[in-house]
Specification:
The structure holds two protein chains of two kinds.
Chain A (H helix, E strand, L loop, with lengths): L1 H28 L6 H19 L3 H24 L8 H24 L4 E2 L9 E4 L2 E4 H23 L1 H11 L1 H6 L4 H27 L1 E2 L3 H16 L4 H21 L5 H15 L14
Antiparallel strand pairs in A: 1-4, 2-3
Chain B lengths: L5 H22 L7 H15 L11 H24 L4 H21 L9 E2 L6 H18 L3 H11 L1 H6 L4 H27 L1 E2 L6 H14 L6 H18 L7 H16 L5 H5 L27 E12 L2 E12 L3 E5 L6 H8 L7 E6 L2 E2 L6 H6 L2 E3 L12 H8 L8 H5 L3 H20 L15 H13 L5 E5 L7 H16 L3 E5 L3 H7 L2 E6 L2 E6 L1 H6 L1 H8 L2 H8 L1
Parallel strand pairs in B: 5-10, 5-11, 8-9, 9-10
Antiparallel strand pairs in B: 1-2, 3-4, 3-6, 6-7, 11-12
Classes of the chains: A mainly alpha, B alpha/beta.
Amino acid sequence: MLQQLANGVFAGSIYALFAIGFTLVFGILRHLNLAHAAIFTAGAFVGIEIATRTGIPIWILFPIVAAIGALAGLLLERTAFRPLAGRDDEHFAGLISSVAFGGVLIALIQARYGTEPKSFPREYFPNQLFQFAGIRVTLTQLVTLGLALALMLGLAWLVSASSLGRAMRAVAENPTAARVVGVNVDRITAGTYALSSGLGTVAGALLALNLGQTERSLGASVELVGFAVIILGGLGSLWGAMAAGVILGLAEALTIHYFDSTWKGLVAFALLFAVLVLRPRGLFGHLKVREV
Amino acid sequence: MLAGYDTLITNIALAVILAYSFHVVLMAGQLNLGQAGFASLGAYISSLVVPAEPLFGSLSPVLIGIPVGAAVGAGAAFLVGLPVLRLRGVFLAIGTIAFGEMVRVFMNNAEWTGGAIGLRVEKWVTVDLAWIVVAVLAYLFWRLGPSRIGRAFAAVREDELAAGSMGVDVVRTRMTSFVASGAIAGVYGVMFLYFFGRITPTTFDFSLTLGGLVTAVLGGYLVFFGPVLGAGFLTAVPEIQKALGVEAGWIHPFITGLLLLAVILFLPGGLSTLFARMRRVPAAPDPDLGALDGLPPLPDRGTPIARVRGLGKSYGAVQAVREVDLEIRSGEVLGVIGPNGAGKTTLVNMISGLETPTAGEGEILGVALGSPGGAHRFAQAGLSRTFQHSKLFDRLTALDNVLVGTHAISRSTYLRRLFWMPSARRDERRARALAWAQLRRVGLAERAHLRPSALSYGDQRRLEIARALAAHPTLLILDEPAAGMNHVEAGELAALIRGLAEDGITVLFIEHNVKMVLDTCTRLVVLNFGEVIASGEPHRVAADPKVVEAYLGAEEEESEHVR
């Protein structure tokens, strides 16, 4: 039981990491970026390739993966979102263009890595086991949890306390007004995508590290849970996404414990459905849903 | 020659059917992404209730399955729609995705579905049957376009508030498109089942939904055969690739992705944009003075048509409107003035049913304020309005904008159009004649085929008035109609309003252009801080010291508006 709960927390921290990148873009730019799952998958493959080729240690690997993700994010913003700015159907078109971008990215992954799953090299990362109060925890899991926490806290600090974060919040509130007072909205938009995608690739590489391997459907498997996380947490709410990620991880773990692992998908979506219908702003969200 | 391509051609047909289930919600601007769930329910339940062998020896199971699938899909969509349609945009999309996933997980775990292994049935779908279904759907959508419900879809897509104010029942229209989408998805599920002879829960997963959405968007909703364009285009890619001898598996998704990106960036309405541009522009009918005949008579001059007592609206601690008593009699032109923030717009929003009062009561054209149903009930009772910031339907032509205005006084034509009934044609012709008559009245007949964005600001305001007039209103509410007009235009507008009053239309209008108000209205009401501070004969009210102090006292600010 405790073991299941611990596993739930670990899984939840990855959900949360996936979701904060996703929710960051939505919260600030109101774009639903459906390419996020593909970027997440790319992070896993790129991480494995770099680890295999160079064998560099993990604390160098992740910054490199994040940097590559940031570049991908800039490209995504440039090709799939910026050309749509100002159009009547900007938000809807962005949904489709990001699906297209994601499709292209997955195709490129297939071109480079083929269709077989790829694994981290054996012994790349020591898989030590620890025991606390009857719970078995691997070093990978601890690193995952630590890294996820550090990234989430770092992001929260960035958004709430730095000048970049202030500009981001200004854009979220009102892009036109932000532009008038001298915020470089285009740069903030690009920066938001870079940040979001950097987080996404790191999350992908972390999940691959936990699973030991990755395949092209890695992102798709997390994407739907990611939706659930951001809705539960309240679209655009960072703290909400973090909390909701862990709640979902725990809920899944409990379902597996009491029912059967095949039912776990239902919990996430039943929760999501209930929250959407009963409390559309999410459990922790304070985002105002404007209809007019 | 086509023999070897049967499977391919049937696959295209299936893709078209799936895309139509997105097409119908896209037309109404609703992002339903639950089609996989509706298709799954349709297929599984059909496999459960439809006998495996042909009924009466000849009725193939798929022919029974199709109505079963449609009914199951429609029913499920209705039940899901009740809670989910309170959501909009991205939230609606995610909510419906969640529904689809719940169905998938459920099917995976239920026993009668065969779990993850799935079900097998005999294959009954032939290439002919698949294309007959496509043809029927295409026909249904062809007849939908220029019908009353088709226009309601477009209006709801473009602007729900304006659609409601034109008498369109927004809730019902959204539900109609949602249920139609569920029904088509259910048919798709059944077709899939009896074509491949096998389904598993993962047949109907999120990637299926994305595929259908992409096909529908690629094809575009501007023409009724958009889904055919989309599916044909997407199928052509791997075929061309095969013909060129390119084998690599990644090329196909790569090219599809790039093409999709190109289409969405450069052809906002999808491939249908190419065809919509070719559509011929119908010429204006001859001025048909008879167009306005046969409309119900307006109430006799002087009859009370609206009355509110103690009306109030507060937003939290802010009292926008308080204790307003007002009676409106047929045939009068009632001007409402007051400084910015005096509560004028809030007052007319309550009178037109867009906002519910927090205090007081009233009856407008026989409809009690605060009664359920919202703005469209007032519109159907004969109230029509324009907005302070024009709410035109941006992607419709000026003529189509005004045609939506006829919604409240026309009958549904869709079902009759399906059977080519002459009465439907008559009704449509009458609606068009009415629309043209109103466009002429405001002087926009020459610009009937332009979109609102191509019109000058003053023309946009006039277009909105034409749209409101097309509803043959008893009471017309204009919210700052002269804002942004120069004084020549404002003078023309004043003449138009006086002309409307002569025709017996009651006009209530908010305006900052005091000169115009005094020239036009028969009675003047002045609001300040949400309260009526004066009311009566215009020039006497304008001279009232209270009014001068509260409103005209701010001479410098107002002179800007008068210009």
